[in-house]
Design a protein that fits this description.
- By secondary structure, the chain is mainly alpha-helical.
- Helices cover about 45% and strands about 0% of the residues.
Length: about 260
């Protein structure tokens, strides 16, 4: 990453702690006082994961306005940017690790929320205050953030010509799109608390695992293929007796084609 105002964390940067994620939430809350469109961290987390996987490196100056608006000035939010960079490095390290199971301590795990589980664990009177509200499903906001990045840089997600690679891309993206949908399965467990009221279906948990592996596939796919190569189209040279394209009115052979 470059074009930013804080130092880049090295490869041994310490993993973000719960306090760090709380600080990121607080920074976003403060930004939201001036711009109600500022997203939650879970959305930012998904957006970042997509950027880490994108075929071409998207620079901060290009993605900050898309995520946090034209009014975001990195120099005014140094702590936020520093934690962002640390999390970016964590995601890279996790996705580049040779893991065979998501239980591996090196495996990358998205920072996602079980908001329904959190609400279900509240006292009854507090839950009643939220009745009728549209509460996102587990990992839904993360998936929406990921796809938001994909949609904003569509050229970098164009299917490759190779059929096998194109199929890999489609399957990986489909696994993430599945999480953008509501979890309508029977709740069987809580991702908020081990002993909390059920709030997530088993299908949702399975889909979440598929989406994580899908991100691994996307990272490997684009890294193996590299940035897209733009086709350079050379303009046809005018015939010697054709009018010169400079607009002089002379024949090409008597103007820019002379010599």
């Amino acid at each position: 990453m470059s074009n930013d105002t804080s130092p880049t964390p090295d490869s041994t940067a310490q993993a973000l702690s719960p306090d760090d994620f709380d600080a990121l939430d607080q920074d976003l809350d403060a930004m939201r006082e001036h711009d109600e469109e500022i997203p939650q961290w879970e959305f930012c987390e998904g957006f970042m994961a997509a950027l880490v996987c994108t075929r071409r490196t998207i620079e901060p100056a290009e993605y900050w306005p898309v995520l946090l608006g034209d009014g975001f000035v990195p120099a005014r939010h140094m702590e936020f940017v520093w934690r962002w960079k640390r999390r970016w490095r964590e995601i890279e390290q996790g996705l580049d690790a040779d893991v065979q199971s998501l239980d591996d301590e090196q495996a990358w795990q998205p920072e996602v929320l079980d908001t329904r589980g959190a609400i279900a664990s509240l006292p009854e009177e507090e839950r009643a205050d939220m009745a009728g509200e549209d509460i996102p499903s587990f990992a839904q906001v993360w998936a929406l953030g990921f796809m938001y990045a994909v949609e904003n840089w569509p050229d970098e997600w164009t299917p490759p010509r190779d059929k096998e690679a194109a199929g890999m891309l489609d399957e990986a993206l489909d696994s993430i799109v599945a999480l953008t949908e509501d979890d309508r399965g029977k709740p069987v467990l809580s991702m908020y608390s081990e002993d909390g009221p059920p709030s997530v279906s088993q299908q949702r948990v399975d889909d979440f695992g598929d989406a994580i592996w899908g991100v691994y596939d996307l990272r490997r796919l684009w890294r193996s293929m590299g940035p897209r190569v733009e086709t350079v189209r050379k303009e046809a040279t005018p015939g010697r007796n054709d009018p010169c394209p400079c607009g002089s009115g002379k024949k090409y052979k008597k103007c820019h084609g002379a010599g």
